[in-house]
Amino acid sequence: MNAKKCVICGKPAVEKYKAFCSARCANIDLGRWLGEKYVIPTDEKPEDEDYKDKDEES
Ligand SMILES: [Zn+2]
Known about the structure:
By secondary structure, this protein is mostly helical. It has a single domain, classed as Erythroid Transcription Factor GATA-1, Chain A. The chain has two helices and no strands. The mean pLDDT is 80. The chain binds zinc ion. Zinc ion is lined by residues 6, 8-9, 11, 20-22, 25. The site of zinc ion has 8 residues, from loops.
């Protein structure tokens, strides 16, 4: 029995597309995945402030 549902739209999933009902839904999931990566903000501070102090001596 194939009781899997598409994780995107809830329609019956097709074996060919694993957990999705169609290539479109597979792409949507992939897009979300990649999108989340880009959304993560970088909280790193630049660590070359010491450099600036040295340059100002001139
Ligand atoms: Zn779907």
